């Protein structure tokens, strides 16, 4: 985690000094300040770790939170890392919370590890009820660079096997698709998925009566694969935020809540 508690005050690891007993805001156990050349400054629980807020805390996730936070601050917005929403049950922290000039709260959920559908739907619904705008940003797996090729928009993966939560995030974005984050280059891509067709080979066989049968020879939509087109890349500070209202929507076994959704819009850059 990047934020710890010290006598009721939020302390950012980037500005913390060694010495005091920093505590985890979730479980109140003492956490250790880690500072090194190769890792971003952060706080870590001491083993054995039972705190749920220690889950999914990869180095890339810590870096992404710090990156988004500093881009928002750099643009003059108020923003907090690991901001606790007091009305939430379970894990109350948003990765980054920002406030628009009109004081609308905007939660950034940077999803490095997979999240199960019940959890993402419950959390999204909580944001909706609380009037907090939300944006979910899955991390790109490094395999997309191996499996894809350059295209006019940026990058194209013909056979992409999305994780269930990515299908959810993509559906939540509707026609606008989903923003994805490349942890290796610290860049953002706008991802759009479309149906992928697989070819069923033509074949013939004989039934018991000696009759010849034919099958295959056609395309069908793949259940597993999608075509993924990535537009970009964009640096964090090139992306502006737009807040929109969306209605409750169900489909494809998913449920998307009513509420505010935050979209990222690349700023027109004149070079
Ligand atoms: Zn804890």
Automatic annotation (TrEMBL):
Residues 57-137 form the Competence protein CoiA nuclease-like domain. InterPro entries: CoiA-like_N (IPR057253), CoiA_nuc (IPR010330). Residues 10-53 form the Competence protein CoiA-like N-terminal domain. Signal peptide: none annotated. This is Competence protein CoiA.
């Amino acid at each position: 985690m990047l934020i710890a508690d010290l006598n009721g005050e939020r302390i950012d690891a980037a500005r913390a000094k060694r010495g005091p007993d920093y505590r985890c805001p979730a479980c109140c156990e003492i956490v250790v300040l880690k500072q090194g050349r190769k890792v971003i400054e952060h706080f870590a629980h001491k083993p054995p770790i039972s705190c749920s807020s220690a889950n999914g805390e990869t180095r890339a996730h810590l870096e992404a939170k710090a990156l988004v936070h500093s881009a928002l601050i750099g643009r003059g917005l108020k923003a907090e890392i690991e901001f606790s929403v007091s009305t939430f049950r379970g894990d109350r922290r948003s990765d980054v919370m920002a406030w628009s000039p009109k004081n609308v709260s905007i939660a950034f959920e940077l999803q490095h590890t997979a999240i199960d559908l019940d959890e993402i739907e419950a959390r999204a619904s909580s944001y909706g009820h609380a009037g907090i705008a939300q944006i979910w940003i899955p991390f790109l797996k490094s395999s997309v660079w191996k499996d894809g090729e350059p295209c006019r928009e940026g990058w194209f993966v013909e056979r992409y096997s999305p994780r269930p939560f990515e299908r959810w995030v993509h559906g939540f974005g509707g026609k606008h698709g989903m923003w994805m984050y490349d942890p290796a280059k610290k860049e953002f891509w706008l991802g759009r998925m479309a149906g992928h067709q697989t070819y069923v080979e033509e074949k013939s066989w004989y039934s018991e009566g000696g009759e010849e049968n034919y099958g295959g020879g056609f395309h069908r939509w793949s259940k597993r694969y999608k075509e993924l087109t990535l537009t970009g890349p964009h640096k964090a500070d090139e992306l502006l935020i737009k807040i929109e209202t969306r209605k409750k929507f169900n489909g494809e076994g998913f449920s998307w809540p009513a509420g505010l959704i935050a979209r990222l819009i690349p700023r027109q850059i004149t070079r």
